[in-house]
Amino acid sequence: MLNSTISIKLKQRINKLDSQDYDNIECWQIVEAFNKAQVEWCRRQLHGLNIVKEGDEQSTRRKDDLQVLLFNNQLSLIDKKDYFSGDIPKNYLQFKRVDVFACKDCCEDRRMTVYLSEEGNLNQLLRDKSKKPSFDWAETFVTLINNKVHIYTNNEFEIAKADLTYYRQPIKIQIQGCIDPYTNLESLVEVQSEFKDDIIEIIIDEAVSILAGDIESPVQYPRGSQTAERNN
Residue 72's Cα: distance from chain center in Å? Predict the structure, then answer.
């Protein structure tokens, strides 16, 4: 869907399509509201806060809607003896999995089963014989801390390769010639939404409720919010 269409739909639903009063919606407000609505919609789908309580990949619709945000990135690792550390990408939104290939002595690289664990339980996990990293059992765990992924080895094996699969932040739309509210610079290019048109329609309703709240429009606010939730 073109940004011009998104703008028209937003103004129409907030009843400002042909308004000349002080509540005219500027292009930067449309960009900011739509991009904010994208993030809110994504977080709600991933967490499952919707009518049918579905989170990511719990239904065919969720898999289909969110697959565009799934991204795979090879981690550049630093050996810290007991664990390997890799930076979380800047466009990271939510963890999905880590694929680890471990090596030891002259053995071939082995694909490990990796669990996401809590940093607070680290000491207990390293001492527990059934949960600590093991090359023989091809199991280990990772934690997330300070925008880094820590892959634990307990100094028993090396890591040949590790890939982080995650949900990334949605691409922010930009309207050419409009001041970008995130950089305060004029947008030189037109950046369209990456979502399908049916999802954009829902995000528009979400953006309408945001804009309605900003301009204190009590009628459009609940309509946009309820419509967005009902169509999830």
Answer: 13
